[in-house]
Amino acid sequence: MYWKFRKTIPYLVLTLLAVIFALPLLWILLASFDVNASQAVKIPSQWTMENYKTILINQANQRAFGNGLIISLGQSVLVVLIAGLAAYPLSRYELRYKNMFLYTILFMTSLPITAVMVPVYKMFLSVGLYDKTGGLVLFLTATSMPYGIWLMKNFMDNVPVELEEAAWVDGASAFDSLIKIITPLMFPGICVVFIFTFSGSWGNFFVPYILLQTLDKFPASVTLYQFFGQHGMVIYGQLAAYSAVYAVPSIVLYVLSQNYMSKGFNMAGAAKG
Amino acid sequence: MKKKQGGLLEEAKKSVLLMPSVLLLLVFFVVPILLTVYYSFTNLALSGENARQLKFIGLSNYFTMFKDRTVRISIRNTLVFLLGSLVGQQVLGFIIALNMRNKNRVFRGIVGPIFLAGWIMPEVVVALCCSTFFGDSGTLNQIFSFLHLPQVEFLFAVPMLTVILANVWHGTAFSMMNFQSALDGVPVDIEEAARVDGAGPFQTMIRIILPCIKNTIATNTMLNTLSTLGVFGLIYMMTGGGPGTKTLTLPIFMYRQAFISQQLGYGTAISMILLVIGIVLSVFYTRIIRND
């Protein structure tokens, strides 16, 4: 009897915790389908798709999602390209300053970006990059470069050099072998970097909030914040529907990344909370 | 002599592919850090007299900071927020990871994603669902009234605790995952041997499991500290730093000084506190990884 009881304790503890953890999200899910959504979790008295419809046909919202997509895609593509290029010499050549460079990069991965935002804002004002989507994307790309390079280099280290050597004998350049041999072999790794960057970017609120000013340029993260600030959280159903739609890419990308991660890459030292 | 030059040329040729990254990092990463240091010694402002005349004012901002009561309050708040988040996330993350070991697959498959969900959610969504959860007529108050407990205006009565809990809800899964993979690495036979020798669960925990995962605890604490120090959006959206100065942390105070009071120089001096703590911790973190 005692043993049985002891064995069920972990299940009870976990179940209780899981229920508590689930409640805040359950609200979003249920309220988004509720005609009379309130602040608390409840089963909708009348189910509806109206909240989603209202949110999705609103042009300002469509633009916000589009902006978010442009910013996040732009950033992820740039990070993959530029970090991929940088990873090649770091992974393949003996360089005198290599270790110093790598440790500097590692050091940079963990610096709090929040601390430099005020000067960045001033700098953007001075050089005319303020309120420009392109400027924002460049800055975001730079902030992701450290872990991008770090990950890409580790992934590239896993691709055997022998394959390349054969290509070199056939007269291929470093650039050729990077494109034709390494890229296909480390494709899962590239996907991981892309997904990490994209979801980080999609969820980023502070940087676009500081560096953009025009309403029409705001990504979904900033408009969602404004929506729940301005409406005083009254239209709960729509607010929940907006959040649900906005969270979908983050969820999908996470599930995708699990697929690639399980292919045996070691991410130690690069995970950032 | 000639050989050495050839070496340098060779080195430069090999590094061509590094150039775009280096350029980007210099312009948008290194320069902002240097500017942070520089601006903190100036009277930089967005409007008014000072906006026209940028002046080097030495340690003036720092002296003001030492005398500023609000700075002390926000440092204290930042530490409370940090400590609360660290303890909450890691203790919960550890308890979950430990209890999940060797459990029924189906059960893990249902419970695991629930914990992960809070971590995957974007910051704005976290702020929103926690605001409603702790709201005056939110889910928690409904549960309280169901249990015949008094209603609590969480965001006014205990704002700091509320934002800490929100951050714990968001961050626990990260610690959980780290502890899960660390616990998987604890050799089963050592644990078995300890049990055969008569060690209770408590002793096994203190003498075997904790020493085995102490590196993970250190790295995890460091990473969580660095990310918690920079938290802006969650607190800003839930309480705006208020009521009053009750949840005013350094990032929020920095934001207020720079963008609401328009004192960029002073705001930057405040962010220097964050930057210095960040740099010190990052050096430690780099050391740990290096020695692994």
What this model shows, in words?
- The complex is a heterodimer of chains A (273) and B (292).
- By secondary structure, chain A is mostly helical.
- Chain A has a single domain (60-261), classed as MetI-like (MetI-like fold, Orthogonal Bundle).
- In chain A, 74% of the residues lie in helices and 0% in strands.
- Chain A has helices spanning 2-31, 50-57, 59-92, 98-109, 117-127, 133-157, 161-169, 174-185, 187-203, 206-211, 220-230, 236-261.
- Chain B has 292 residues and is mainly α.
- Chain B has one domain (69-291): MetI-like fold, CATH 1.10.3720.
- Chain B has 16 helices and no strands.
- Chain B has helices at 2-14, 19-39, 49-52, 60-67, 69-100, 105-120, 123-133, 139-146, 154-157, 159-184, 188-196, 201-212, 214-229, 233-238, 250-260, 264-291.
- In chain B, helix 7 crosses helix 10 and helix 11 (188-196) packs antiparallel against helix 12 (201-212).
- Chain B starts with a helix and ends with a helix.
